[in-house]
Amino acid sequence: MTREIHLELLLGTQVLDPTGKPVGRIEEIRTEQQGYEWFIQEYLIGNSALLERLSAWEIGLAILRRLGAHKIYTGYSVPWQQMDLTDPQKPSLRCHLEELESFQKPTQ
Question: Which string of DSSP letters, residue by residue, matches 42-102?
C-alpha cells in the first residue's frame, strides 16, 4: 500500500523518542533524486537544523551567542528508516537519541 505524506507539513513538527519524550522539531528533510523519483535520505531535527534550513549559520550563531546560548550545536541527523511516520502529526524515532549522529555545520 502506497501512502502520500506532504513533506512541507512535517516541517516544524515535534519528534518524540520511543518513550514519548520530545527531542526536537523536523527542520530540514534531505532527499536524493534517482531517475524520475525522489527518495528521503534523512531528517534533520533541532536548532542546528533550523539554521541549516534558513542558510543562516553565521548570523544565527552570532545571535545565539549574543543571547547567551551555550549549547548552540544541538541537532540530529535521522536516517529515513529511523523515523516513524505512522501518524505524521506525531512523528517519532524508531531508535534512541543516543544512536543518532549529531548534526554539525556542513563544511564549505
Answer: EEEESHHHHHHHTT-HHHHHHHHHHTT-S-----EEEEGGGEE-SSTTS-EESS-GGGSEE
Dist CA 57 CA 60 (whole Å): 5
Q: What is the pLDDT of residues 43-92, one digit of tens each?
A: 999 866 655 655 555 665 666 667 665 555 578 889 999 999 999 999 99
Question: What's the CATH number of domain 7-102, 1.20.1420.30, 2.30.30.240, 3.40.50.720, 3.30.565.10?
Answer: 2.30.30.240
pLDDT of residue 85: 94
Q: Give burial (CB, 10 Å; 0-12/13-18/19+) of 62.
A: exposed
Query: What separation in angstroms does the CA of 12 have from each of 7, 9, 39, 107?
Result: 11, 8, 20, 25
